[in-house]
Every structure is written in structure tokens, then in C-alpha cells.
């Protein structure tokens, strides 16, 4: 255990009595209060706490919404409007839940990118990383299920597209089993509601395992060098709890600005049209946080050994599946991108690539970005969304399958500091006001 | 036979132009609304005028089923008096059952929602050449451009340009996706007699007023949301300052 | 030196206490919408009152309206029925209450039609008491003022809050 032996002593007779029977106070003290945490963690390391805050918000607002929502296809859409118009503060709780999902994903993407940047997936944190990928998958499933519940045009047709995709891989029998019928209809909605209520508690359970795995090996930190002693760490409380409170307040400001002043910013107008199984909307798009995977799916518009539809689904599934292999794909002995100048560039290009793929996934299919001529059917041809998505998909997989394995073998890393404490002191010296006559070294801030 | 042919033609036109729609839909000109921005509020008189336009023109074909008559007197909306709202309700017939259990109608009361115009979807399609007039409760949130889009549609009827054929029973509209709309131009200058003097009785004014009314119908809690938001953001900003100072205080003696 | 640290301690504590209190206020204010959402919604509150026009009700006739989910009787009593219930001495009643206290206008009786024994709906019946009610479940008998005369029910039929908006319109609730 990274924290070493327990530092808890029961403060009175009652606490001693409890501790002998169920050491819950000891557990809380060792893991939440006194846990030795590297003292150089920057703001990118606060997103774990932010994510827990988001999960609590989603669960509380979700349970309350479930008191009013009706998971039946003839009443679902109207019950959501009943919440928005008639339930006391229903509009607030619904907008919090709806935008809470988006902010949950904003936070998880920052958290994941942080993990990639600082090599937090490397030994001995492989299981920690894998648990995180599982949580991300569960979040995607929960978000998808939740979006179907209002039974809008986007709900219905999004459900249709995704369940048909799974059918391409697993067969029509599987799809009918999933639907509970021959098309997306009431049985589908009712089971999606049940699963949407269930999965967040599975996420909660896996998150507990995630924090347990973290505390067993100890936090990574921006230098990538393990703490060497108490001079490198501070107790979680009050040092990091104070930081969490501050950052959570800031995060809530951004969240409040969206909820109160732009509540439909992340949404799509067709989400306010009742679902009609006889009328396909002009433009089916997933929620923004799944759009990159949708772009990869649509990028495969050619056959190669397999039919393009099946191939597309395999690529989409592969894009998440490859995350499980990351701890073994990266061959570098150096953890943090701070000391890996080539990887640093590749990482930021990866982030940009993911953003571009997300944008592409939200556009209508086939839009031409740079026209080079006119095709036989009179429509413009040129560099299209599909081409952009294909390039993006190649870089995405290339980052994991080519860059990560090869860079570790050929890259020359920057010299590593001796320890966290020396790195912190070096930064302090470099950043402190220079005495007259001395020149201060430029800070390496990453 | 003609009706079926027209319905088929409209359906075909809609599906054929679907891919092109998203790429070539004309963007509605932005209108300045009183409810724009974080400090936006509804203009009570505009909402009342907009309701009048809805009642006298649109409600003949379009329902507003998610809005209840009692909402007309709620704060944050047109804020009719209770008596006015009751009178409006009584002017609508809502479904009821008579003493023998047969379907009949009765005068609306405050607790009722605006009734449907047609008993069901099939009747709505059949009575309107295959194109059912959509419910308007959420229209201002269900289209790109919102109330500006509704205003653009209502003022965007004109002669089709050369080379464009408009199917019989349909009309050319500048801002409708695909440019063909099944609704006849519903507004004419001077059509609705406003009680307020100094308000122009033009198609443009009617369109603005009814669009604002429909925005309220779609988002009745807008004003409460803006007000509460102001308090929340200000409180959180002050709290953030306090929490930041606390954080700095905690870390004061630690190199990090 | 010690004075400085003491000052420091109180300054520091004040900041933490104040921040904690502010955060606590924030949490409490945030909790209110989550509690209030369980209160009756606007749609339910709209049905909290029911207006009943009286003109269509003939003398001797009774109608049933739903008020807050309960069957509520509005009955136009005949002169004979009024005289009879007013003649009943209090001593013969299980739950003594003069008729004058149960109605606003003697011609109009407004009561909730749920037997106070175990909740069945009594029927209008002349056998037990002329112009009265008999509950078929366990035999409770009420008079034309809704008062319990005999049978297992302990209390008179409840009178809901109501007012005469006009001579021809009452509002219940």
C-alpha cells in the first residue's frame, strides 16, 4: 500500500469500539484524510475529484427525474415536457442532468488525456488504467441509453442506428433480442430505462476499485518519478481537498453558465421533436461526446475483405478496444511527456485529431469541404468530411499502434530530475524573483 | 386521386431533397428578440399580441397541446388575468364524455391543455393534403434558428423563381428546407386587429409577435431561469474567490 | 512572535470558517429544488379546486364531482329533507353536529362521499332513513345531512372546504 502502515489512532472509546469491529474510520482516514500524495500535482490532476462530483450530480438528479419520467413510448416525450413545465424546478433538474452528461464527458476527456500525457498507464498502474477504460465504456453506454429516453426523433433514430450496427456484427437475432421486437419500440425504451438506472451504480462500484488501485500503488505525478519519502508528499487533507473545493467551484461556474444561459448548447434541435418511426430526420447525429467514434465508423465507406458496414463497426469498436492495450503499446522507459519532446508533439496532435474527428462526426454525411469539381450526378466533389475522417482515423490508430511502440525505442528523452522535491525546488529557484544582476532561467512549464 | 398524387409528390420531393437540405437550407435572418442574451425577458404585450395572432390565425390548424390554459396567467408569460385566462379557456372545446358515456365536448377550464385540432394523426393528414400541421408547443426549439426561423417562414412566401416548379396545392417559401411548403401563406396585412394603438398591423409584425409567443410556449421558464442563474453565478464567483484564498492559505508553507 | 502566530491562527481560521459557511449555504440553497420537486406539481395543483355550476341540478337531485381524487356529492335538498334533518335532536347522533354547521345554504349539501368506516361509497337509499344514504359494505346509514345515524362508521361524512362564487357556482377546495 503506497501509504504505508495505517496512521489512524481512534480518538475516543467509541471510535476504538467501532474500529475493532468495522475499521471504516481507519479506512477513511488512511485513504481520504492522511493519504500521502505527491506535492507537485497540477490542476490536471484534480479531474478525478471533479468526475466523482459529476457522478454524484447525475445520480441525484437522475433519481429525482425518475420520480416523474414515464418510460413508455406513448408517454415518455410528454412526461419530459411535464417535468420541464409543471414539476417544481423540474426544468432546472432536467437541464442539470442533460448538461451534466456533457460536462461529465468534458471532465473525463481531460482526465484521460492527462493520463496519456503523464504516462499514468505505465507499470504498476496498468490495472488502474484498464479500470478507467471500463468506466469510460460504461459512461458511453449510459450516455447513449439516457439520450434515447425522451423518445424524440434523435432518441429513436439514434437507437435505431446503434442497435442496427451491433446487428451488423452480431446478427439480426441479437438485434431483435436487444429490441424485444422487430424494431425500436416500447419494449426497447423500457429496458433502456432500466439499464440507464443501473449502469451509474456499476460505474460507482468500478470507481471504487479504480481509487483502490490508485491508492495501492500511489499517484503518478508530473515528473513521472515515484515519491522517495515524506519530503515528496503531503497528506490529501487539507492540501488537496482545498484544491478540489476550489476547482469544483470553478467547474460549477462553467456548468451553471451553460445550464442557466445556454442549456441547449450541446443538443440538437430534433431532440425537441417527438419520435416518429415513419419519418427519418434529415440529419442523424450522436451526442458530441460519441461523435469521434461515429466519424471513424462513417470513414469506412469502402469494402476491404469485409463489407464496409461490418468493417466500420469493427474499426469503431477497435478504437475503444485499443485503449485496453495502451500500457503494453508504449515502450518508453520515461513516463511523463514533459521529458519526451517528440511524444509531446505527437500527443497534442492526437488531441487535435480527436477534436477534429468529433467535429466531423457531427456534420452531415458527404459534405464537401474543398470542392475540386462536379461529379457525374451534378453534385460537388472534392475533399470531403469522409476524407477528413479517414485521415483522422489513420492518425488515431497510428498514435497507438505505430508512434507509441516505436517512439520509446528511438526518442532521446530530456534529463529527468532526481526526485519530486528537487524538481519542485528547481522550479522555485527558476521562478522566484531574481536578485539584482542575476538572470532567471526560463521556466519549463508544461 | 388528386390528393393522393399530391401527397405522394410532396413525400417524394421531401425525401429526394433531404441530403441537399442540410447543405443548402437558407439561413433565416436573425431578428433581435427581447428575450435574447443572459438578461433577456419576454415583452408581456408582445406575448399577448402573439397569442391573439395564434388564436385568430394559427389555431385553426395547429394545436398547442403541451400548454395549459392556466399557463396563460403564470408569471413569466403573457400574464393574462385569471378571468381573461378562464374566458380564453371557455372559448375552446375540449373532449369530454356525456352521461351515456359517448364522446362529446365541453368548454375548456384553466386546468385543461389546448385541445388537438384533429382527433388523430390520420385525420390531420387527410384534412391537409397529406401534410399534417405540426403541433407548435416546441416549434421554437425544434428548428435551427428558433423564433427567427418561424418569423422567416411566415414572411418568406413569394413567387417561385424561374425554373422551379411548385406542385399544385403547395407554395414556394424562401426559408423552408427544399423551398416547398404545404402551408398557404397564413398572414396578411391588417388581418388581426390589435387593441394596442401604435403597433403596425403588418405581416412582419404579426410574424414577430407570434414567434415570440411560440418561444414562450416552448420555454415558459426562461425568465425564472435567467434570474436564478444570475444569483447562482454571482454566488459561485464569490465562493470561488474564498475557496482560492483558502487553498493558497493551506499551501502557504509548502514548496510545490 | 507568539502574538503574530496567534493573529495568524485566527485570521486563517476565519477564512476557512467563512468559506465553509458560504459553501454550506450554497449546498442548502441547492437542496431546496430537490425537496420542492416532490411537492404537488403545477398540473396537480390545478386540480386542487373544482368549480361546480349549480343551475343544472334539479331539486332533489345529486351529482358527483371528483375533487382531489375523491368523489364529492353536491346535492340540492328538498324543503322536506331540510326540515327533517333540522328536526333531528343532537342526542340521537353518534357524531353530534347540527345541520346548520354542515351547510352554508340549507338547500345545498356538499360532502365527500366516502364512508368513514372503511372507505366504500354509500348509495342514496330511502329504506334506512328517508332521503339518506346506506353503505352497502357494512350497513352504515347516513341522513340527508350526511351524518352517521347507525352502523359501524364513527364519524359524519366530511364536508370539504367550499365557497359560493355566485348563487349558481361553487368552488370546492
Short description:
Chain B has 256 residues and is mainly alpha-helical. Helix content of chain B is 41%, strand content 5%. The chains are: A mainly alpha (446), B mainly alpha (256), C alpha+beta (173).
Write up what this structure looks like.
- The complex is a heterotrimer of chains A (about 450), B (about 260) and C (about 170).
- Chain A has helices at about 15-20, 25-35, 45-65, 75-85, 90-115, 125-150, 155-170, 170-180, 185-215, 235-260, 290-300, 310-320, 325-330, 340-360, 385-410, 420-430, and strands spanning about 35-40, 235, 370-375, 380-385.
- Chain A is mainly α and about 450 residues long.
- In chain A, strands 1-2 form a two-stranded antiparallel ribbon. Chain A has a two-stranded antiparallel sheet with strand order 3-4.
- Chain B is mainly alpha-helical and about 260 residues long.
- Chain C is of the alpha+beta class and about 170 residues long.
- Chain C folds into two domains: about 1-40; about 45-170, Rieske [2Fe-2S] iron-sulphur domain (Rieske Iron-sulfur Protein).
- Chain C contains three helices and ten strands; from the N terminus they run H-H-E-E-E-H-E-E-E-E-E-E-E.
- The radius of gyration of chain C is 28 Å and the shape is elongated.
- Classes of the chains: A mainly alpha (about 450), B mainly alpha (about 260), C alpha+beta (about 170).
Which residues of chain C sit in consecutive blocks of at least 5 with pLDDT less than 50?
A: none
Quaternary arrangement of the chains shown? heterotrimer
Shape of chain C: elongated
Extended strand count of chain C: 10
Helix-strand pattern of chain C: HHEEEHEEEEEEE
Count up the domains of chain B.
2
In CATH terms, what is the fold-level topology of the largest domain in chain B? Cytochrome Bc1 Complex, Chain D, domain 2
Secondary structure: number of strands of chain B: 4
Q: Topology as H/E string of chain B?
A: HHHHEEHHEEHH
Q: How many H/I helices of chain B?
A: 8
How many domains of chain C? 2
Instruction: Report the radius of gyration of chain C as a whole number of Å.
Output: 28 Å
Low-confidence stretches of chain B: 1-23
Amino acid at each position: 500500500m503506497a501509504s504505508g502502515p495505517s496512521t489512524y489512532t481512534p480518538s475516543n472509546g467509541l471510535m476504538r469500539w467501532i474500529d475493532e469491529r468495522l475499521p471504516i474510520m481507519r479506512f477513511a482516514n488512511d485513504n481520504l484524510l492522511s493519504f500521502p500524495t505527491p506535492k507537485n500535482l497540477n490542476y490536471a490532476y484534480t479531474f478525478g475529484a471533479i468526475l466523482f462530483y459529476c457522478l454524484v450530480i447525475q445520480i441525484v438528479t437522475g433519481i429525482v427525474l425518475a420520480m416523474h419520467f414515464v418510460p413508455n413510448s406513448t408517454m415518455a416525450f410528454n412526461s419530459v415536457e411535464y417535468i420541464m413545465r409543471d414539476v417544481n424546478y423540474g426544468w432546472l433538474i432536467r437541464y442539470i442532468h442533460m448538461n451534466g452528461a456533457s460536462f461529465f464527458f468534458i471532465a473525463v476527456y481531460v482526465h484521460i488525456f492527462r493520463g496519456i500525457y503523464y504516462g499514468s498507464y505505465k507499470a504498476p498502474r496498468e490495472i488502474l488504467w484498464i479500470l478507467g477504460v471500463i468506466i469510460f465504456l460504461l459512461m458511453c453506454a449510459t450516455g447513449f441509453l439516457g439520450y434515447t429516453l425522451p423518445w424524440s426523433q434523435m432518441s429513436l433514430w439514434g437507437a435505431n442506428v446503434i442497435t442496427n450496427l451491433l446487428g451488423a456484427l452480431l446478427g439480426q437475432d441479437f438485434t431483435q433480442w436487444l429490441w424485444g421486437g422487430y424494431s425500436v419500440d416500447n419494449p426497447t425504451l423500457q429496458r433502456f430505462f432500466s439499464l440507464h438506472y443501473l449502469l451509474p451504480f456499476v460505474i460507482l462500484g468500478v470507481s471504487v476499485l479504480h481509487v483502490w488501485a490508485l491508492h495501492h500503488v500511489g499517484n503518478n505525478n508530473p515528473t513521472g518519478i515515484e515519491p522517495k519519502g515524506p519530503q515528496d508528499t503531503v497528506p490529501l487533507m487539507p492540501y488537496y481537498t482545498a484544491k478540489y473545493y476550489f476547482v469544483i467551484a470553478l467547474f460549477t461556474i462553467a456548468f451553471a453558465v451553460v445550464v442557466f444561459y445556454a442549456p441547449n448548447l450541446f443538443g440538437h434541435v430534433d431532440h425537441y421533436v417527438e419520435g416518429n418511426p415513419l419519418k427519418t430526420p434529415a440529419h442523424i447525429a450522436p451526442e458530441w461526446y460519441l461523435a469521434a467514434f461515429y466519424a471513424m465508423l462513417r470513414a469506412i465507406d469502402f469494402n476491404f475483405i469485409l463489407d464496409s458496414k461490418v468493417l466500420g463497426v469493427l474499426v469503431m469498436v477497435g478504437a475503444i478496444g485499443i485503449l485496453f492495450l495502451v500500457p503494453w503499446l508504449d515502450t518508453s522507459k520515461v513516463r511523463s511527456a514533459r521529458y519526451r519532446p517528440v511524444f509531446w508533439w505527437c500527443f497534442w496532435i492526437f488531441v487535435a485529431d480527436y477534436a477534429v474527428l468529433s467535429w466531423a462526426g457531427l456534420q452531415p454525411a458527404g459534405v464537401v469541404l474543398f470542392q475540386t469539381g462536379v461529379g457525374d450526378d451534378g453534385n460537388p466533389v472534392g475533399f470531403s468530411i469522409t476524407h477528413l475522417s479517414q485521415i483522422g482515423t489513420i492518425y488515431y490508430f497510428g498514435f497507438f499502434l505505430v508512434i507509441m511502440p516505436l517512439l520509446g525505442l528511438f526518442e532521446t528523452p530530456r534529463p529527468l530530475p532526481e526526485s519530486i522535491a528537487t524538481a519542485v525546488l528547481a522550479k522555485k529557484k527558476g521562478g522566484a524573483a531574481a536578485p539584482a544582476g542575476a538572470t532567471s532561467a526560463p521556466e519549463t512549464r508544461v | 386521386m388528386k390528393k393522393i398524387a399530391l401527397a405522394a409528390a410532396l413525400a417524394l420531393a421531401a425525401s429526394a431533397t433531404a441530403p441537399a437540405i442540410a447543405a443548402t437550407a437558407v439561413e433565416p435572418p436573425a431578428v433581435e428578440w427581447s428575450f435574447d442574451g443572459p438578461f433577456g425577458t419576454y415583452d408581456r404585450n408582445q406575448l399577448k399580441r402573439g397569442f391573439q395572432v395564434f388564436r385568430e390565425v394559427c389555431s385553426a390548424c395547429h394545436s398547442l397541446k403541451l400548454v395549459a390554459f392556466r399557463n396563460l396567467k403564470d408569471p413569466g408569460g403573457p400574464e393574462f388575468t385569471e378571468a381573461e385566462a378562464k374566458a380564453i379557456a371557455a372559448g375552446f372545446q375540449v373532449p369530454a364524455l356525456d352521461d351515456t358515456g359517448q364522446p362529446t365536448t365541453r368548454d375548456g377550464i384553466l386546468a385543461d391543455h389546448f385541445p388537438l385540432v384533429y382527433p388523430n394523426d390520420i385525420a390531420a393528414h387527410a384534412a391537409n393534403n397529406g401534410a399534417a400541421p405540426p403541433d407548435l408547443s416546441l416549434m421554437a426549439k425544434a428548428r435551427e434558428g428558433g423564433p427567427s426561423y418561424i418569423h422567416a417562414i411566415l414572411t418568406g412566401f413569394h413567387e417561385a423563381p424561374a425554373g422551379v416548379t411548385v406542385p399544385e396545392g403547395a407554395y414556394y417559401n424562401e426559408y423552408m428546407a427544399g423551398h416547398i411548403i404545404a402551408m398557404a401563406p397564413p398572414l396578411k396585412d391588417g388581418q388581426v386587429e390589435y387593441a394596442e394603438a401604435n403597433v403596425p398591423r403588418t405581416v412582419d409584425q404579426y410574424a414577430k409577435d407570434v414567434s415570440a409567443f411560440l418561444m414562450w410556449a416552448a420555454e415558459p421558464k426562461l425568465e425564472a431561469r435567467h434570474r436564478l442563474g444570475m444569483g447562482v453565478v454571482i454566488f459561485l464567483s464569490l465562493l470561488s474567490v474564498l475557496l482560492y484564498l483558502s487553498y493558497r492559505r493551506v499551501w502557504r508553507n509548502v514548496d510545490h | 512572535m507568539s502574538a503574530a502566530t496567534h493573529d495568524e491562527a485566527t485570521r486563517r481560521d476565519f477564512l476557512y470558517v467563512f468559506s465553509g459557511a458560504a459553501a454550506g449555504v450554497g449546498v442548502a440553497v441547492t437542496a431546496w429544488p430537490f425537496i420542492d420537486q416532490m411537492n404537488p406539481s403545477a398540473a396537480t395543483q390545478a386540480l386542487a379546486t373544482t368549480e361546480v355550476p349549480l343551475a343544472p341540478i334539479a331539486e332533489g337531485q345529486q351529482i358527483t364531482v371528483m375533487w382531489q381524487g375523491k368523489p364529492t356529492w353536491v346535492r340540492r335538498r328538498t324543503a322536506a329533507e331540510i326540515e327533517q334533518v333540522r328536526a333531528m335532536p343532537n342526542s340521537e347522533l353518534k357524531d353530534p353536529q347540527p345541520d346548520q354547521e354542515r351547510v352554508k345554504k340549507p338547500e345545498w349539501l356538499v360532502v365527500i362521499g366516502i364512508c368513514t368506516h372503511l372507505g366504500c361509497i354509500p348509495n342514496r337509499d330511502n329504506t334506512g332513513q328517508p332521503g339518506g344514504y346506506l353503505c352497502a359494505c357494512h350497513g352504515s346509514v347516513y341522513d340527508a345531512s350526511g351524518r352517521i345515524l347507525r352502523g359501524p362508521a364513527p364519524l359524519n361524512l366530511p364536508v370539504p372546504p367550499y365557497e359560493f362564487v355566485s348563487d349558481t357556482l361553487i368552488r370546492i377546495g
